Amino acid sequence: MADSTNTIVVTDIKIPFWSLVVLMVKWALASIPAVLILVVIGAIASAVLTMLFGGAFHWPWGPGRMM
Asked: Measuring CA to CA, which residue among 56, 34, 37 is closest to residue 45?
């Protein structure tokens, strides 16, 4: 069988302005729970790493030390 490929080039997409505004507002609202989930995952990962390696680093100017 011959290998036939079709090339498609998109030159213009017509989207009404207010439809695009509504779409971007929906994206913004949908990003809020996603960011909250990522913050929770980051906090858990940070807590786990602090529990594992928290005592490994001691700086003279670190928290709880008098200068």
From this structure: 37
Contact 67, 61 (CB under 8 A): yes
Tell me: pLDDT of 59 over 80: no
Distance CA 53, CA 12 (A): 54
Going by the DSSP 8-state scheme, the letter that residue 64 receives in this structure is T
- For 67, the token pair is 């200068």
Only one residue has tokens 């090339």, namely: 7
Q: Which amino acid is at 32?
A: I
Q: How open is the CA angle 35-55-61, to the nearest 5 degrees?
A: 90
pTM, 2 dp: 0.56
Structure tokens at 16: 């009404």
Q: Enter the tokens of residue 29.
A: 């609202």
Integer Cα distance of 16 and 26 in angstroms: 16
